[in-house]
Design a protein that fits this description.
254 residues, Alpha-Beta Plaits, 2 domains, 4-stranded antiparallel beta sheet, two-stranded antiparallel sheet, 8 helices
Amino acid sequence: MSRLSNLGANSTILKQKYTLKGMSCQSCESKVRSALLTVPGVEDVSPDKDKQEVEITSEDKVSLSNLQFALNSIDSKYLISLQDRTLIDQKEFSFLQTYIPLIILFAFLLGITLIIQVAAASFDFLVWMRHFMAGFFLSFSFFKLINLEGFANSYRMYDILATRWKAWGYVYPFVELFLGLAYLINFDPIVTNMTALIVMSLSIIGVIQSVLNKRKIQCACLGAVFDLPMSTITIIEDALMIIMSGFMLFNALG
């Protein structure tokens, strides 16, 4: 029985349609519904095995990683991604409201790395870039490691390696951690920048594919801590790291 009747008159109702792969029978529908109803905030679940989709009604926006985590508790074959969204009495978020965590993080890293250069009494562009990339990879790996499983579940929805090799979603944050530490201590610039260039180039492929296909899925750049949508901002973020690592690699080889 639906729990919608428990909602108060002033409650916000949000309906979202998701693509849900893995359902093959009515038993699957029943299991999926029961699992998703355990997610805090979810009020009603309507799965459809024939369309491979599910409509979820909730009091507010529900994290995609939380939904995937609930599905993993019954079977890892179920993969959920946002397909369509209908909002009822729900305010649209502005660009600033949506990406405020990412904006604050980049502003923080920019400010700290510039202060380091000011303290050195001279501005060295390559040193500033190395410090910025150290901060970038260390910060982003930190947020991913807070909820490693949540990140891995979100990441394998779009990354070309994680979709084929599930373990990559668990390895990737540690690769970022290594890169952050490597940039921080200036470990072998050629190896460090080559690794960053390869890793980020592979990462951006799945991001571009998702954006071009207009898939409404959660961006895993800040792990499962923040519910950020996949967009051109994610492409710019990855492209920035590719350009920086490529530029520093060129200088290291020169």
